[in-house]
Design a protein that fits this description.
Blueprint: E1 6-11, H1 18-27, E2 33-38, H2 50-61, H3 66-69, E3 72-74, H4 81-87, E4 92-97, H5 100-116, E5 121-126, H6 136-144, H7 155-164
Parallel strand pairs: 1-2, 1-4, 2-3, 4-5
């Protein structure tokens, strides 16, 4: 009998973008269970509260087939990612990469996590060319300046961004 594999996909998800959703979809091909972990201890002060970010993720995964939604949990976490991975019995940490600059930071984190918990692997998923340039921070900047973010986020996130920045 094969052992079921749980993966954890951590992030700020402020807001969740089409790039994040791509990583979630692709992760479901690799693991039996996926825990999406929005971080609670964001030093940079998020645009969306933790509760809003959880709600947004849950709304966006409603577009997935029921069988996939049944394999996803959204569980916020605080503190070290490796402690969270242990807490949810994850054997895999999933990280999305957009560019070489992401890799430099992510490989350091993966190596530190491997030192602290050798039984948890980190898997990097390269963004497709459609999503390589999408970053939550850029999406927020575009929305803040009245630009159209609809091609980078779901319709529901797009509407939330417009409400946050008071744009019609």
């Amino acid at each position: 009998m094969a052992v079921e594999r749980t993966g954890v996909y951590p992030g700020t998800f402020d807001p969740v973008t089409s790039g994040h959703m791509e990583v979630i979809r692709r992760s479901l091909r690799l693991v039996d269970w996926l825990v999406i972990g929005p971080a609670t201890n964001i030093g940079k002060g998020p645009l969306f509260s933790l509760e809003e970010r959880i709600e947004i993720i849950k709304e966006d995964i409603q577009e997935f087939p029921q069988a996939d939604r049944d394999r996803i949990k959204v569980v916020p976490f605080e503190g070290l990612l490796i402690h969270f991975a242990r807490e949810v019995n994850a054997s895999v940490i999933i990280r999305g990469l957009r560019a070489v600059s992401d890799f430099e930071y992510e490989i350091q984190m993966a190596n530190m996590n491997a030192r602290m918990e050798p039984n948890v692997e980190t898997i990097f998923l390269m963004a497709s060319d459609r999503h390589q340039f999408i970053a939550s921070s850029l999406v927020k900047d575009i929305a803040r300046m009245g630009g159209d973010t609809s091609q980078f986020v779901s319709q529901k996130v797009y509407e939330r961004l417009k409400r946050k920045f008071g744009k019609k």
